[in-house]
Design goal:
The protein is of the alpha+beta class. The chain folds into two domains: about 5-80; about 85-180, Hypothetical protein apc22750. Chain B (Translation Initiation Factor IF3, 2-Layer Sandwich). About 25% of the residues lie in helices and about 25% in strands. The protein contains three helices and nine strands. The protein has helices at about 65-85, 115-130, 170-180; strands at about 25, 30-35, 40, 60, 90, 100-105, 110-115, 135-145, 150-165. Strand 8 (about 135-145) and strand 9 form a beta hairpin. The N and C termini lie far apart (about 50 Å). Bound molecules: zinc ion (2 copies). One zinc ion (ZN) binds near residues 14, 16, 34 and 37.
């Protein structure tokens, strides 16, 4: 069985409730299932994951796939996201002293998203995924993109992932930077 349009007319036995009313299939294991037995994943699940695999991109799955594949992946994603939210983001304008323990060999880049916050979260996610706790020399900029009918903004950003001694940051300036980040 490869896709739902090849399912026979007669309903199959649902792998979840075992009733003979499966009219669709799970997008991951392709087992027959009824629509009401397919379970949803939250809308924002895996939102900032770069190159999100197709397996993790469906809105609903059977309970077995949720338990075996989706929920463990979501747990890992959420753990990285929580660290990403706490990343110390310092822009080029930050002039305070930074006690850098380790710095990535190359800067990271995120391109062409409709809003600033999304670019910041994606940069932070990338840095957190690699185990860093800061993004240095961060630079998030917008460009006007002219479409035929209207103008819109396209946001991009760069920064150097790093591990810093956050306790030793110049408090006032760092707070100022974090404040700007939230705007
Ligand atoms: Zn069912
Ligand atoms: Zn499944």
């Amino acid at each position: 069985m490869t896709s739902s349009d090849q399912l026979p007319e007669a309903p199959l036995e649902c792998i979840s409730c075992r009733k003979l009313k499966a009219r669709t299939e799970c997008p991951l294991c392709f087992e027959p299932i009824c629509k009401t037995c397919l379970l949803p994943v939250p809308d924002d699940a895996f939102q900032y994951m770069p190159d999100r695999p197709e397996d993790l991109s469906h809105p609903r799955y059977c309970g077995f796939c949720l338990d075996a594949t989706i929920n463990p992946a979501l747990e890992e994603y959420t753990e990285v996201l929580e660290r990403a939210k706490k990343i110390c983001l310092l822009t080029k304008a930050y002039k305070g002293h930074v006690s850098t323990i380790k710095k990535a060999k190359f800067p990271i880049e995120v391109k062409d998203y409709p809003d600033r916050e999304e670019v910041i979260m994606r940069l932070a996610y990338l840095a957190a995924k690699e185990g860093y706790n800061a993004l240095l020399q961060a630079d998030v900029v917008s460009a006007k993109v002219r479409n035929e009918a209207y103008q819109k903004s396209s946001w991009s950003g760069t920064g150097w992932p790093a591990t810093i001694d956050a306790e030793r940051l110049d408090r006032d300036e760092a707070r100022e930077e974090m404040y700007r980040r939230g705007k």
